[in-house]
Each structure stands twice: as structure tokens, then as C-alpha cells.
Amino acid sequence: MFEGLKADGFDDCVVGIGRQFNHDVVVYDQDKIIQKLAIEFTDNCNDQDECDHYSEAEEYFEFNIVGGYVGVNTPVFIRLGSLDDLIHEE
């Protein structure tokens, strides 16, 4: 029986099922999640000139989603791309 936990509201960001520590977990595309959050933050911002939607979305993602470890069934969040591109991006 699959016991992986889901991140609510991000089913469209799932890229597959992964295996970690002998447990199957849901794997999400973190860039899709951040883009989705940025759109949501744009819709909820009263002063568009004062809002930094993407930075707010990244901060929210890091603190509230990635930072929410809830045991071995916690989802995994990945960035897609070639290893060389991802390593040199930072």
C-alpha cells in the first residue's frame, strides 16, 4: 500500500514516484510549484508595483513546503535539467 504524503493543491506538479529509505514517496517539480505560488501571490497582491511574486513564492516554498518534514513519507522536490546546468546555476 502506497503511504507517500502529498502536498495539497499541487497534484499538477507531480513528476512521479520516487524511492527513499525503502519508502515510495511522491516526487514534485519544485519549479512548477514555485511558478504556481507566484501566480497565486500575484492574484492576491493589492499593489502590483510593490510585490515581488517570484521571491515571495520561493521563500514560501522553502519555509512552508520543503521545510515541512513529516517523516519518511515526506514528498521529494526536484529541479529538472541536466546535472551540469543545475550545478552551475547556483
Compose a concise summary of this entry.
The chain contains three helices and three strands. It has helices spanning 30-43, 53-66, 83-89; strands at residues 14-20, 23-29, 76-78. It has a three-stranded mixed sheet with strand order 1-2-3.
Plain-language structure description:
By secondary structure, this protein is of the alpha+beta class. It is 39% helix and 19% strand. It has helices at residues 30-43, 53-66, 83-89, and strands at residues 14-20, 23-29, 76-78. The radius of gyration is 15 Å and the shape is globular. The chain starts with 13 loop residues before the first strand and ends with a helix. 12% of the residues are buried. The model has no long low-confidence stretch (mean pLDDT 88).
In N-to-C order, the SSE pattern is EEHHEH
| Major beta-sheet overview | 3 strands, mixed
Residue stretches low in confidence (pLDDT < 50, at least 5 long) are none
Give the strand order, joined by hyphens, for the main sheet.
1-2-3
